[in-house]
Design a protein that fits this description.
This protein is 40% helix and 23% strand. The chain has 184 residues and is of the alpha/beta class. A six-stranded mixed sheet has the order 1-2-3-4-5-6. It starts with a helix and ends with a helix.
Length: 184
Amino acid sequence: AAVAYLDERGFKPVETEVPVRHGWIADIAGVIDPTRTEIIKLHIMPRKPDYKQQEDRQEWERGAARFFRVMTALVEVKTSRRDFLSDAKWSFPLPTNLAYVALPESLAVKEDEVPMGWGILKAHGSGVRLKRTPAIFEVSDSQLLATVLGIAVRRDHDTRYARIREILRRNRQRKSEEATPTRM
């Protein structure tokens, strides 16, 4: 559900188990070069004022302009209170611009227990609700590149291995079809 949440907000690609920093593998990570609509969907900026409020629209455009850049996000998925409390990552500097923790609706974690700046996603049924908007962190260009590279490598592995699995499946199917007539 957290992968779908990022994907629906414009993060492409979104991958799982992504190395984002030495010793830190994010449960989910994605990259975005946001449009105006995606900035609003991420709750980074409020809706643009209507056309009657020209001065407010210009101010909104100036404010939004600072977000028209490549940004990265990570999501740490926690399924138990023990898992949440024992994670040492909370004390590390963030390697991405946006960071979320995804929790099941039933997990009792207070907002003040989640580190400042981290967004909170609560899973319910098959969806996710944003409970707290994340802060936008500045990361170095080299860290941004490293995260994007980690996502790209995961995507390459996923597509390459999916292609290999499909070739093997076709070969098994072809062999089983070839073997059947000879048995008769």
